[in-house]
Amino acid sequence: MKRTRDHLSNNFxxxxxxxxxxxxxxxxxxxxxxxxxxxxxxxxxxxxLGFLIGxxxxxxxxxxxxxxxxxxxxxxDYIKNQISTGExxxxxxxALMLSAFLIKFFNFSFFDIHYAxxxxxxxxxxxxxxxxxxxxxxxxxxxxxEKSPELTKNGRIKINKLVFHAYTTPIFxxxxxxxxxxxxxxxxxxxxxxxxxxxxxxxxxxxxxxxxSTIK
Length: 216
Fold this sequence. Notes:
- It is a single chain.
- By secondary structure, the protein is an alpha+beta fold.
- It has two domains: 2-67; 88-215, GAF domain (Beta-Lactamase, 2-Layer Sandwich).
- The chain has six helices and six strands, in the order ααααβββαβββα.
- It has helices spanning 2-10, 12-35, 41-85, 91-105, 138-147, 191-215; strands at residues 107-108, 111-120, 126-127, 152-159, 162-173, 176-185.
- Strands 1, 2, 3, 4, 5 and 6 form a six-stranded antiparallel β-sheet that branches.
- A hairpin with a 2-residue loop joins strand 1 and strand 2 (111-120).
- The termini are far apart.
- 21% of the residues are buried.
C-alpha cells in the first residue's frame, strides 16, 4: 500500500494534468457538438476523428514534456550514487558518464540528442564520437562559455551528410567556471527544450562536478 501511495504522490502533478486535459477536451468537444447539430453527419464524423487523433497526439507530447524533469531526477541518481560511493572520483570520468547520459536520456521524438561533448576544467574534452571532433572549434567554444553562463546556439552543423543543431551549455558553480557541455540534435530546439538543458546544468551538474573536482 505504501508503494502505491508513493507512486501516486510522485506522479500527482501528471495525474492532475491528465484529468484537467481530458475534461478540457470533453468541454471543447461538447461545445462543437452543441453548435454543429445542423452540420452534415459526415462532417461531424471527420471532425470528431480528427479531434480525437489531435488530442491524443497533443496529450502524448505534453505528457512527455511535463514528465521529463521528474524522470531526469530519478535517472541522474545513478551518477550521483557513483559519486557518493567514490566510483566516480575525478572530473574526467564524470565527463565520460555525463556524455553517455545525455545521449541515453534525451531520446524523445522532439528532443533527440545524437552526439554530446563534455569539457571540464583542466581536462581533455570528452566526445561521444570521433565524428564530432572537428565539428566545432572547441577551444573557441570554451572561451565563449567561460565569459557567460548563458546557453549558446552554435547553429547548423553537418556531420556525415546529416544536419544537426548544436547547443552549448556552460557549467558554473556560483561564479566559478567548471566547463561546458555541447549537444547535437536533429531537431531545432525551442526555448522550452533549451531551458531543460540550462536547468539540468543548474540543478544537477554543477554541484556534482564541483565535488569530483574537489576530490581531485
